[in-house]
Amino acid sequence: MTVLRWHQPPLRLPAEGWRTTFIALALSLPLPALAQTPSAALVASDPATPTVPPALLARPTSGAETAPELPTDIERARAIWQRANQRVAEFPRGHIDLLRWEAQNPAAPSVQPGETTATTPVLDMAGALRQSLRHRPGLFTHAGMNDLERATVQRAYATHVRALQRAWIDAVTARQRLRLMGESLEAATTGAELGRRMAQAGNWSQARWLREQLTEAEAQLAWTRVAQAQQATTEQLARLLSVWDAQAVAQLTLRLPAQLPEPPAQLAPGATDVEAAALRNFPPLAQQRLKTERALVAVSPERLAAWSQAVDEALKTPATPAGATPWLAPQIGDLRLVRDHSLEAAVEAESALLMAAAERRSMAREAWRQLHAQHTSALQTQHMLRLQTAQEQETLLRYNGMLQSSWDLLASARDRLNALGATLQARRDFWLAQADWDALLAGADVEPNSPGTSSDNNKRATAGGH
């Protein structure tokens, strides 16, 4: 059998023809799968990417805003009074159980935010850190770096971790605070509704019912502020995580833990080694110290002593005449000292090193004191919360024994919510102080708080704000 083979002479094109043909073939070939899928950065930066409008706050509504129907004659008043008391008698604990039953069987939606489901992965601090580092290649060290480059990356990394920890702590706290404020608003709404029915039955005056309405309105305002703060903290965390999609940001809150962990019973020892630990873990200071030593070696001790003496002479208080301004800079009289560049470099390096060391030691002392004080406050507020909870239980027992009224029970519940809000705030401040201390030991700079001020930027939005 003869096999016929088709022999075609090779195609010969000039150099320019080869280039044109290659470009045409390259454009006609399908792109790889990776190139066909645009990166998240390209999608996020494209103005044409479809988005959803941001969710706006909805004003909490109340069923007690309208004035109750007042009777026009004595028979009508008696009928309203009897109907109200018969309705209350159907429940073991009277008004409170009645209002709770009606709140559990309504048609109106609750003001509470969505809760984490069993299938929702919890975004802990470790997971948030991994996600934030995915798009920050500048925070990775690699082989071939010298000590200075590695220390620079380490310092930037510690600064980022501190910022992320603060954002994560604020977001978790804001979520728990919003849930707490929802309970506080529920108690205020219960009081307003109970007051409306008391006024309708003729047991209360309009003035007393208006006071309950004012309490509810203040609770609604506080809830709105807390909800806005919760959204702001979520957006801050989303920026650090590079989450750009609005729906993903909305789900971010649901992925956070329900609450912050409790503070430890005891702090780790180390009060005697606070300053040394801060200095050891700050490589730029060691490099600055080495530079200062080299500058001082290049100058004779006699020249350094002459400079110190000239400074002492310049700092002596002059005898200024009456009315002369004291705000005149001191002056060095010896020009030979001023024109000595080696001496100038040594003096400036020594001064810079001294100020840097003093600042670092001060940061360490203040951060440690802040951590210790916030730890003590957190434990104290937890103890106060236990006492307030026990007092509420005692009030409930006395209410069941008809020894205290519904208003005493509502007031006790509000006090417990206030104590819970204070505990939440103290726990947040402790973990922020812990993050500052850890960041300082890792080489980051920590800005101290102003004396007499709190580290909380959302102090108005506490659970007991009304």
Q: What's the alpha carbon Rg, rounded to whole Å?
A: 35 Å
How many distinct helices? 15
General form? elongated
Provide the structure class.
mainly alpha
Characterize the largest beta sheet: strand count, sense, and whether it forms a barrel: none
Q: Give the tally of β-strands.
A: 0
Quote the average pLDDT: 75
Query: What is the CA–CA distance across the termini?
Result: 102 Å
Sequence stretches where pLDDT stays below 50 over 5 or more residues: 1-35, 88-96, 105-117, 450-466
What portion of residues belong to β-strands? under 5%
Order of helices and strands: HHHHHHHHHHHHHHH
Helix content: 55-70%
Description of the structure:
The protein is mostly helical and 466 residues long. It has a domain at 121-260. It is 64% helix and 0% strand. The radius of gyration is 35 Å and the shape is elongated. The N and C termini lie far apart (102 Å). The model is unreliable at 1-35, 88-96, 105-117 and 450-466 (pLDDT under 50).
In a nutshell, what does this entry contain?
The protein has 466 residues and is mainly α.
Task: Give the tags.
single chain; disordered C terminus; mainly alpha; 466 residues
Task: Summarize the topology.
Layout: H1 15-28, H2 33-36, H3 40-45, H4 74-89, H5 95-104, H6 125-133, H7 147-200, H8 206-241, H9 246-255, H10 274-280, H11 283-297, H12 301-315, H13 335-338, H14 341-400, H15 406-441
